[in-house]
Amino acid sequence: MEKKDIEMELMEKLETGYITLMRGWLKLEPLQIIEKAEEIAAAKLVFEELKNGGHDLEHLEYLLRFKNPLEVVRDKWIEENGLEMVHDEDMRHALWTIADTRDAEQDYELDEAYVSPEQGVRMC
Q1: Given this model, what pLDDT does residue 62 score?
Q2: pLDDT at residue 11 above 80?
Q3: Could you say which of 13, 95, 109, 119 is the most buried, measured as most Cβ atoms within 10 Å of its Cβ?
Q4: pTM of the predicted model, to two decimals?
Q5: Rounded to the nearest 10 degrees, how much is the dihedral formed by the CA atoms of 111, 112, 116, 119?
Q6: Widest CA span of the chain, in angstroms?
Protein backbone atom coordinates (compact mmCIF):
# COMPACT_ATOMS: atom_id res chain seq x y z
CA MET A 1 0.00 0.00 0.00
CA GLU A 2 1.40 3.43 -0.93
CA LYS A 3 1.86 6.21 1.60
CA LYS A 4 -0.85 8.31 -0.05
CA ASP A 5 -3.35 5.45 0.30
CA ILE A 6 -2.37 4.86 3.91
CA GLU A 7 -2.75 8.57 4.69
CA MET A 8 -6.16 8.64 3.02
CA GLU A 9 -7.44 5.59 4.90
CA LEU A 10 -6.07 6.88 8.17
CA MET A 11 -7.69 10.27 7.56
CA GLU A 12 -11.06 8.57 7.09
CA LYS A 13 -10.62 6.78 10.41
CA LEU A 14 -9.50 9.98 12.12
CA GLU A 15 -12.49 11.93 10.80
CA THR A 16 -14.88 9.16 11.84
CA GLY A 17 -13.33 9.10 15.31
CA TYR A 18 -13.47 12.87 15.63
CA ILE A 19 -17.11 13.00 14.54
CA THR A 20 -17.94 10.25 17.04
CA LEU A 21 -16.23 12.21 19.82
CA MET A 22 -18.03 15.43 18.85
CA ARG A 23 -21.40 13.69 18.88
CA GLY A 24 -20.63 12.46 22.39
CA TRP A 25 -19.59 15.93 23.53
CA LEU A 26 -22.80 17.43 22.17
CA LYS A 27 -24.82 15.13 24.44
CA LEU A 28 -23.05 16.41 27.56
CA GLU A 29 -24.33 18.98 30.00
CA PRO A 30 -22.37 22.27 30.08
CA LEU A 31 -20.56 21.41 33.34
CA GLN A 32 -19.56 18.03 31.93
CA ILE A 33 -18.11 19.75 28.87
CA ILE A 34 -16.10 22.05 31.12
CA GLU A 35 -14.76 19.04 33.02
CA LYS A 36 -13.72 17.44 29.71
CA ALA A 37 -12.19 20.62 28.26
CA GLU A 38 -8.61 19.35 28.32
CA GLU A 39 -9.62 16.02 26.79
CA ILE A 40 -11.52 17.85 24.07
CA ALA A 41 -8.58 20.16 23.42
CA ALA A 42 -6.20 17.20 23.24
CA ALA A 43 -8.45 15.40 20.75
CA LYS A 44 -8.63 18.49 18.54
CA LEU A 45 -4.88 19.07 18.73
CA VAL A 46 -4.08 15.44 17.87
CA PHE A 47 -6.65 15.38 15.06
CA GLU A 48 -5.23 18.55 13.48
CA GLU A 49 -1.64 17.37 13.86
CA LEU A 50 -2.32 13.97 12.29
CA LYS A 51 -4.46 15.53 9.56
CA ASN A 52 -1.60 17.81 8.53
CA GLY A 53 0.55 14.80 7.66
CA GLY A 54 4.29 14.58 7.45
CA HIS A 55 4.55 11.59 9.79
CA ASP A 56 6.54 8.40 9.37
CA LEU A 57 4.91 5.75 7.19
CA GLU A 58 5.63 3.08 9.80
CA HIS A 59 3.68 5.05 12.43
CA LEU A 60 0.75 5.68 10.10
CA GLU A 61 0.57 2.00 9.14
CA TYR A 62 0.56 1.03 12.79
CA LEU A 63 -2.26 3.48 13.59
CA LEU A 64 -4.38 1.93 10.84
CA ARG A 65 -4.55 -1.24 12.96
CA PHE A 66 -6.86 0.49 15.39
CA LYS A 67 -10.57 1.03 14.95
CA ASN A 68 -10.23 4.52 16.45
CA PRO A 69 -6.62 5.68 16.05
CA LEU A 70 -7.56 9.19 17.19
CA GLU A 71 -8.55 7.85 20.58
CA VAL A 72 -5.28 5.92 20.83
CA VAL A 73 -3.10 8.94 20.05
CA ARG A 74 -5.24 11.32 22.15
CA ASP A 75 -4.96 9.10 25.20
CA LYS A 76 -1.20 8.75 24.77
CA TRP A 77 -0.88 12.51 24.30
CA ILE A 78 -2.83 13.14 27.49
CA GLU A 79 -0.78 10.53 29.33
CA GLU A 80 2.47 12.24 28.34
CA ASN A 81 1.51 15.91 28.05
CA GLY A 82 -1.96 16.85 29.07
CA LEU A 83 -4.14 16.76 32.14
CA GLU A 84 -1.00 16.95 34.23
CA MET A 85 -0.82 18.63 37.56
CA VAL A 86 0.85 22.00 37.41
CA HIS A 87 4.38 21.76 38.72
CA ASP A 88 5.30 24.19 41.46
CA GLU A 89 8.15 25.70 39.45
CA ASP A 90 5.84 26.29 36.46
CA MET A 91 3.33 28.11 38.64
CA ARG A 92 6.06 30.10 40.37
CA HIS A 93 7.40 31.18 36.99
CA ALA A 94 3.95 32.24 35.75
CA LEU A 95 3.26 34.22 38.92
CA TRP A 96 6.72 35.81 38.85
CA THR A 97 6.22 36.89 35.22
CA ILE A 98 2.83 38.44 35.98
CA ALA A 99 4.16 40.35 38.98
CA ASP A 100 7.48 41.32 37.39
CA THR A 101 6.19 42.68 34.08
CA ARG A 102 2.94 44.11 35.48
CA ASP A 103 1.48 43.88 31.96
CA ALA A 104 -1.73 42.43 33.34
CA GLU A 105 -2.57 45.80 34.88
CA GLN A 106 -3.11 47.12 31.36
CA ASP A 107 -5.36 44.26 30.27
CA TYR A 108 -7.44 43.40 33.33
CA GLU A 109 -9.63 45.48 35.60
CA LEU A 110 -8.10 46.22 39.00
CA ASP A 111 -9.96 45.88 42.30
CA GLU A 112 -9.89 49.31 43.97
CA ALA A 113 -9.95 47.71 47.41
CA TYR A 114 -6.54 46.15 46.81
CA VAL A 115 -4.75 48.91 44.89
CA SER A 116 -2.49 51.07 47.03
CA PRO A 117 -3.26 54.82 46.82
CA GLU A 118 0.10 55.59 45.23
CA GLN A 119 -0.70 53.17 42.37
CA GLY A 120 -4.00 54.83 41.58
CA VAL A 121 -6.80 53.17 39.70
CA ARG A 122 -6.37 52.68 36.00
CA MET A 123 -9.33 52.30 33.71
CA CYS A 124 -9.23 49.57 31.11
Answers
A1: 92
A2: yes
A3: 13
A4: 0.70
A5: 90
A6: 72
Q: How far apart are alpha carbons 89 and 38 in whole angstroms? A: 21
Nearest to 50 by CA among 6, 1, 14: 14
Please report which confidence band the pLDDT of residue 55 belongs to, taking 50, 70 and 90 as the band edges: confident
Give the residue among 18, 79, 69, 13 at the shortest CA–CA distance from 44: 18
Q: Which long-range contacts (CB under 8 A, 24 or more apart) does 82-85 make?
A: 82/38, 82/39, 82/41, 82/42, 83/38, 83/39, 83/42
Counting Cβ atoms within 10 Å, is residue 77 exposed (0-12), middle (13-18) or buried (19+)? middle
| Distance spanning both ends of the chain, measured CA to CA | 59
Q: In this structure, which amino acid lies at residue 39?
A: E
Task: State the amino acid at position 23 in one-letter form.
Answer: R
Give Cβ neighbours of residue 25 (< 8 Å, ≥ 6 apart): 33, 36, 40
Cβ-proximal residues to 108 (8 Å cutoff; 6+ apart), any chain: 124
* Cα–Cα distance, 3 to 101 (Å, whole number): 49
